[in-house]
Specification:
The chain has helices at 2-19, 44-58, 61-67, 73-85, 104-119, 139-154, 173-189, 217-224, 236-242, 255-268, 288-307, 320-348, 358-374, 391-399; strands at 31-36, 90-94, 126-130, 165-167, 199-203, 229-234, 274-276, 313-315. With 403 residues, the chain is an alpha/beta fold.
Length: 403
């Protein structure tokens, strides 16, 4: 019977490992900042950081943070330091909606100049291009911009580890499969290693979530990407508009948005594909009251996303950087003490009021690792060694638990 079970289930065993390899490891950026291609300069990250710091001082973010319960002084200091040393973690040069439709020669020049600017300076750890979609009217322009951007970047050296591109407005798994072919051709044309190019799928159409036959299209898209999909990014406003939601109610926390993201989260779980929430278009501009209203809303939405397991989101304005880091650091610093205590108790088999299981132990370790990676706290704040918190090492620790 044992041998028969092995024979019957060998295909399922292999399919499980191939389809659900688990988290890829490494640092996930806490946000993606979208900037139109013609506004990208070598000093863009520094300019964004300086603009963010100026708004913080001008409109008293410290007072608002204290009023809203963000009272950990270390959080505020770390946020200020982040705006000085690494204000942007992930930058996406945009020639899609944020850029619009321009003459071909103008877009050609913009993508080449943007790639040159980023490779010639201290670019963020992650960066890349959001090109135009594979819809009939824009697919040629999209591939042309991607080819030019890639070529311009490679003229200045090898692609950095964090290089990624974004395929927007996906409506069918066939478009994802076509993107795999595009990546293969570009790799050959530019002398890149096979499978070097990876891409994000932007989920901003209802067809990308639920197909006409009732299937979860996004799950098929992940498989159609043949291992090249690095992330699913939710597009707040395109998706909401396509669902017929009135403009005044389009938001990251609308029930339609929650449904779409729940499907995305389920489809991506265990596949190694990471998730990103969308953006809020309420920007911190205007007088003090308007800026603080936008900050308060951004703090609420970022925290809401973190609670729901979305550890990345979009930022569209320098003034959203302070609240992105404030909410993120606060979330992980608050999570550290109970997570560390529960993980230590689990590994020591201590009796506590919470009965944790192996999967929960992995989740406890993961939240600590994310906090370390984003800079919410340092290794000195965590009793367990950083390397011991990665999944393989933690598996070994769990096997050596006292009996």
């Amino acid at each position: 019977m044992y041998a028969e079970l092995d024979r019957r289930l060998v295909a399922a065993d292999h399919a499980l490992v191939d389809t659900y390899p688990g988290d890829p490891g490494g640092r996930q950026p806490v946000h993606t900042v979208y900037v139109p291609a013609d506004r990208v300069t070598a000093d863009l990250p520094a300019r964004y950081g300086e603009a963010a710091l100026a708004l913080v001082q001008q409109h008293d973010l410290a007072d608002l943070a204290a009023e809203l319960g963000f009272t950990d002084p270390a959080v505020y200091e770390r946020m200020l330091d982040k705006l000085v040393h690494e204000p942007i973690e992930d930058l996406r040069v945009d020639v899609e909606d944020g850029y619009g439709h321009r003459p071909d020669d103008e877009e050609d020049a913009a993508v080449v100049a943007a790639a040159a600017a980023l490779t010639a300076s201290g670019a963020p750890p992650h960066w890349g291009l959001r090109f135009k979609s594979f819809e009939p009217a824009t697919r040629r322009r999209g591939v042309r911009s991607l080819d030019l951007f890639l070529g311009a970047a490679l003229r200045h050296g090898p692609l950095p580890e964090g290089f990624v591109v974004t395929l927007p407005k996906v409506t069918a798994a066939d478009q994802v499969a076509a993107m795999v072919v595009v990546c293969e051709r570009l790799e050959r044309a530019h002398g890149l290693a096979a499978a070097r190019l990876r891409f994000e799928i932007q989920v901003e159409t209802p067809q990308a979530v639920l197909g006409a036959d009732g299937t979860a299209t996004v799950a098929r898209m992940i498989q159609a990407a043949a291992g090249r999909c690095s992330g699913l990014h939710y597009g707040t406003y395109d998706y909401s508009a396509a669902c017929g939601i009135a403009a005044a109610y389009q938001s990251m926390d609308h029930p339609a948005a929650d449904h779409a993201k729940a499907v995305m989260q389920t489809a991506a779980a265990g596949t190694g594909v990471r998730l990103s929430d969308g953006s809020t278009n309420l920007l911190p501009v205007g007088n003090r009251a308007a800026v603080q209203r936008a900050w308060a809303e951004h703090l609420r939405l970022v925290r809401r996303s973190l609670v729901r397991g979305y550890y990345q989101g979009w930022d569209l304005h320098p003034g959203q950087l302070p609240t992105r880091y404030l909410a993120t650091y606060s979330f992980f610093r608050a999570a550290l003490p109970p997570a560390a205590q529960r993980l230590r108790a689990y590994l020591d088999r201590s009796a506590t009021a919470v009965l944790d299981e192996p999967a929960t132990a992995q989740a406890l370790a993961a939240v600590i690792v994310r906090g370390l990676d984003c800079g919410a706290f340092d290794a000195a704040d965590v009793e367990l060694d950083r390397a011991a918190l990665d999944r393989p090492a933690l598996d070994r620790l769990m096997k050596r638990r006292p009996q």
